[in-house]
Amino acid sequence: AKIDPVRVYHVLLKHVESRNPKSYRDPVNPVKRTKEEAISLINQFKEKIEKADDPFSELKKTARELSDCSSAKNNGDIGFITKGKMLKVCICTSIVSSRVFQR
Questions:
Q1: CA 18 to chain centroid
Q2: Is the pTM of this model over 0.90?
Q3: Which residue from 14, 26, 28, 76 has the least number of CB within 10 angstroms?
Q4: 3-state secondary structure 29-51
Q5: Which of 39, 48, 3, 1 has the alpha carbon at shortest distance from 18?
Q6: Whole-angstrom Cα distance, residue 53 to residue 58?
């Protein structure tokens, strides 16, 4: 069965153990947050996004304001992906409910 591409938005928080621990927001200085701090922040973002009246808008706002990925300039939009196209080292967690992605 053919799997249709899915448009993906994300919030990336780098930490001191990241493969490349530099944020696009400050490409000179490595990030100083620990992995545990990054996970805690992501969990806080997840809760805030899921409770929002408009979770999709909240996800995009969070990405734009806080993501360490250059996709923040595009509200966290990393484009379309298909099965097997994400980096193998990337552990992706759905940070919002499926209702966000049904838009």
A1: 14
A2: no
A3: 28
A4: EECCCCHHHHHHHHHHHHHHHHH
A5: 39
A6: 8
What residues of the chain score a pLDDT lower than 50?
A: 87-103
Task: Give burial (CB, 10 Å; 0-12/13-18/19+) of 100.
Answer: buried
Long-range contacts of 12-21 (CB under 8 A, 24+ apart): 12/67, 12/68, 12/69, 12/71, 13/38, 13/41, 13/42, 13/66, 13/67, 13/68, 14/38, 14/68, 19/89
The amino acid at 30: P
Neighbours of 48 (CB within 10 A): 15
Element housing 73 (H / E): none
Quick check: 47 and 59 in contact, CB under 8 A? no
